[in-house]
Amino acid sequence: VQLVESGGGLVQAGGSLRLSCAASGFTFDDYAIGWFRQAPGKEREGVSCTHKSDGSTYYADSVKGRFIISSDSAKNTVYLQMNSLKPEDTAVYYCAADKRLYGCYGIRYNYWGQGTQVTVSS
Q1: What digits encode the pLDDT tens for the residues 19-28?
Q2: Which of 39, 58, 85, 114 is the most exposed place for a label (fewest CB within 10 A)?
């Protein structure tokens, strides 16, 4: 199982970025996929997650209405569209996966990518 994030970068406040999480070694349909972030000096926090089997989707309150999680089964890739970015969104963003039948929130994720840096300037 391998997860590779991409799409991070430097953007001005109010701008947008789309993160990608490309998976290999497994099929997304059987896994919960989550996006997490960790800012310097802060604990890692869950941002969003999804599971294709039951359509479950979760967003943290801090990103609700601004971020959209989606997936492309043909490409085995999950995306995180981030709009109206704020300086407080600055962090390393990680995608993670866990094999389960349904659900994605409040679970332990066993597979993690290396992360991609997102920096939002004010």
Answers
A1: 999 999 988 7
A2: 114
Q: What is the DSSP letter of 87?
A: G
Q: Which of 119, 94, 77 shows the shortest CA–CA distance to 34?
A: 94
63: number of Cβ within 10 Å: 23
CA distance 101 to 88: 34
Pairing of strands 77-82, 67-72: antiparallel
- Name the maximum alpha-carbon separation found in the chain: 41
Q: Where are the alpha helices (DSSP H) in 24-109?
A: none
Tell me how far apart the terminal alpha carbons of the chain are, to the nearest angstrom: 37
- Percent of the chain exceeding pLDDT 90 equals 83
